[in-house]
Amino acid sequence: MSAAVEQGKDYEFKKYKTYALKVDPNQNDKAAEIKLCNFSRPHMRAFHCSWWTFFVAFFIWFAIAPLLPEVKDTLGISKQDIWTSNICSVAGTIVMRFVLGPLCDKFGARILMGCVLMGASIPCALIGLVNSAGALAATRFFIGLGGSTFVMCQYWSTSMFTKEVAGTANALVGGWGNLGGGVTQIVMGSVLFPLFKTGMSAETAWRTVSIVPACVGALTGFTILRISDDCPKGNYKEMKQNGIMQEVSASASFRDGALNFNTWLLFIQYGCCFGVELTMNNASASYFKKEFELNTETAAAIASIFGWMNLFARGLGGFTSDKFNAKMGMRGRLIWQTVCLLIEGVMVLIFAQTKSLGLAIFILVIFSSFVQAAEGSTYGIVPYVDPPSTGSIAGIVGA
Question: What's the fold here for domain 38-229+251-398?
Answer without folding.
Answer: Growth Hormone; Chain: A; (1.20.1250)
